[in-house]
Structures are given as C-alpha cells and as structure tokens.
Design goal:
The protein is mainly α and about 70 residues long. About 70% of the residues lie in helices and about 0% in strands.
C-alpha cells in the first residue's frame, strides 16, 4: 500500500515523507498478530485496534490528497 501511495504521490507531485502509512500499518499488524500471547493479549489487541484506527485515518487523508484536482 505504501509503495502504491508513494508512486501516486510522485505522479501527482504531492510532497510526502518516507513510505506513507508503512510504519503505523506494520505496528498495527504486529500488535494484532501478537495479541494471542496469554495475559498480554488483551493489551496488545487494544494497541493494535488503536494503531489500526490511526492507520485508517492516515489512509483516508492520503485518499483525500489524491482525489484533489491538480
């Protein structure tokens, strides 16, 4: 997803830094995957959900930037 966003931003000449959405998406995925750990699973799951929501908001913001006319 981040590579596709980076390419689209390059084509549309929209400024961005690094890989858009990569880190927060990776953190959300890791937290959700590790939520099966006993005793810590609930906290990890909550962290994963929070990071997933942040990721979703970031992707929505990127979509708005792409949808704007040049």
């Amino acid at each position: 997803m981040s590579d596709a966003l980076a390419k689209e931003f390059d084509v549309r000449q929209i400024g961005y830094e690094g890989k858009p959405g990569y880190v927060i998406g990776l953190v959300a995925s890791i937290l959700m995957a590790t939520s099966i750990i006993p005793y810590l699973g609930g906290l990890l799951w909550i962290g994963g959900v929070v990071c997933g929501i942040v990721y979703w908001v970031q992707i929505a913001d990127f979509s708005k930037k792409i949808a704007q006319p040049a």
